[in-house]
Amino acid sequence: MKSEQNRIVYLDNLRNVLVYNVVVYHAMLAFAYPILFWWATVDKEDSARIFETAVRAMYIYMMPCMIFIAALFILPSLKKAGSIQYIKKRFLRLYVPVIVFVFCMGDVFPYLMSKRIGNLNLTYQDTFISFWRSFIDIPLIFMTNPDIMINQIHFDFYHTWFLTLLFFVTIIVVLLNLLFRKKPVKPVAPESRKKVITKTILFALTLSVVYVAVSCLYLLNGILLNGWTMLGKAVFFENIQIWMLIPLFAFGLYVYKKDWHTLSDIGSWKMWGALTVFFFGLYIILVHFIYLPGVEEMYKAVESNTLSGKKMEMPALNASLLIVAMLIWFLSPLSSVFILMFLLAFAKKFFNRPNLVTDFCSRHSINVYILHYIPILLFQHALLDVPIAPFFKIILMVIIIIPACLWLSHRLVFPYPKTAILFFVALKLAALAMGFEFYYWAILAIIFISFAAALYEFAKFMINRSGSKDTA
Prior knowledge:
The protein is mainly α and 472 residues long. It contains 16 helices and three strands. It has a three-stranded antiparallel sheet. Strand 2 (228-231) and strand 3 (235-238) form a beta hairpin. The chain starts with 8 loop residues before the first helix and ends with a helix.
């Protein structure tokens, strides 16, 4: 079923879930010590392995599923708009928000990080200048170094890296479409369920083999698996995850070409769910009970070596732990693909009807993705010494920040994008003049006001809706 805007409803609903999953993911990062020792606000006392495992588990499927869904919408939108108009539209939709975010908010993370590691003399103006000086100094091909990335103010795209990658793979698709454009062909019959399942499983197995091979190659050559690469000061991606993202993006284009997402029977959600439970469950067990306990001391040693002058000897990577790591690498793409297929089948069956709430969330999902990051950082900082359980801190952040970002998008960013840009730039300039404390409290105030406004508008909507039903 498609919505009035010719969107595929269950895919929009699934993307909503994934975006809000990203908000939960970022909210948990403060409690995933030691594997997230590099986060701007780390709550060591309240950190627990369950949060470390959850972070690793969510990492497996969030961005891979999001880039797959993005691929499904590229070709139909390109046909509708034309190449030049489509690139312009995507630049405004994807890259302009990146530029605005990085200018207005990019130095918040390094400022909070610098205060956490004890650089108390650094002013917010100093951070801003150092942040952009590092951008100027970055070479056209740059791979991150953990010591430099933590101890020095450095340029980073943060969560908007995904939008930079998506924009540039979109450009590649547009160029390839121009080069190899063919005459329209007659529609073909949908592929059988058996063929779809067989191709998907073969794709997942091939991707897992490639992923393990690349991981081993990186390890042998001293390339950080979880390090990052920046190309042309414009595109940012994780060294190892890119080997899952690009194949899944290509898989999404293939699925669109074959009409699997609309015509074919991709298999029962129960079948894909069973495969997900087995392989993803095995992944979680290995990570939680073997891998994380085995690497905990390594992460603490890296933290000590990068954040202090005291150098610790790195624990040796024993053979059994390396085998577990290879199993985890193999299970990662398998789990990602099976989770994707389960979510597609489940959403197609149960969440394929348009309604006002899901349509509203779909319209604003990308803005929620962009807006939530800094409020999460500031809330984590504000709640650091509050004596409540981390689970409740996470829930509190999520239930305040998501409605607030939705309201901001609905009332400011979506209807008045130029005004929104001017507002955030003016707020940034005021912060540079008045200091970080002003920025800190201004953003928190905006979030709380937006949250209250969102509650008010939602309550008014429900009352009006109830009144309409009673009248009918």
